Amino acid sequence: MGHFTAGTEAYARHVGRYGGALSAAHADAAGLVVGERALDVGCGPGVLLAELARRLGASQVAGVDPTEPFLAAARAAVPNADVHVGSAERLPFDADAFDVVLSQLVVNFMDDAESGVAEMQRVARRAVTSCVWDYAGEMTMLRAFWDAALELDPDAPDEGRTMPFCTPDELAALWDRAGLREVRTDALVVSAGYADFEDYWWPFTSGLGPSGAYCASLHDGARAALRDACFRRLGSPSGPFTLTARAWFVQGAV
Ligand SMILES: C[S@@+](CC[C@H](N)C(=O)[O-])C[C@H]1O[C@@H](n2cnc3c(N)ncnc32)[C@H](O)[C@@H]1O
124-138 burial string, b = 16+ CB within 10 Å, else e? Predict the structure, then answer.
């Protein structure tokens, strides 16, 4: 879990910047109905958990994540939610304990996604949903970073190539293999604002996630060259700018 230990501030300014809008889009797509109970698997600092609590009530939602510093943030974000340390592959809940089980930006990080989705299905009565960034395409913040990295280093570990389950076909196949029914995929497109280029760049230097780990592994000169290449790819912005990000959504009925 080393990728996620760089802290919640770095996370909030990296992909977390898109989290509120993505959580709202994910909750809309899942078709939540008041009265349902929902579990957020890999809840991280709790942004989707908070969205679920707003829609269903905090006592109706639970979260689970293996990364302790994130759980403290999740508990603070939704004090009355049922938040546990744990992994998707072994969920600490009874069968059919929830109506809907969601995971946001998580299946691509699971050690064993087949077991994780099977467990999500075991504890769900109505539906299992997920969304994963379109790393190879229109997740612009990361795409600009990796395209710049590839320009300088053809062996850069581009998440568009290394990440599993980041296309609609792969997600649908994973859901089908778990025995989920009526599997459907969709695009969730959100956006986020940046004060300036430095606001975009700083989270990469914090070592967070695969992009931060790569950035931290470079010597100073290579990191400066990567920074310049990112700046150019974003159109050399001199002030505030907005980027869009697409995630692929999948849902299956239990
Ligand atoms: C990119 S973060 C997403 C966090 C949150 N869902 C969100 O949308 O902001 C990935 C999360 O997956 C968690 N994670 C990694 N492996 C996991 C696993 N096997 N089971 C459950 N969560 C896992 C990490 O601890 C981290 O919180």
Answer: bebbbbbbbbbbbee
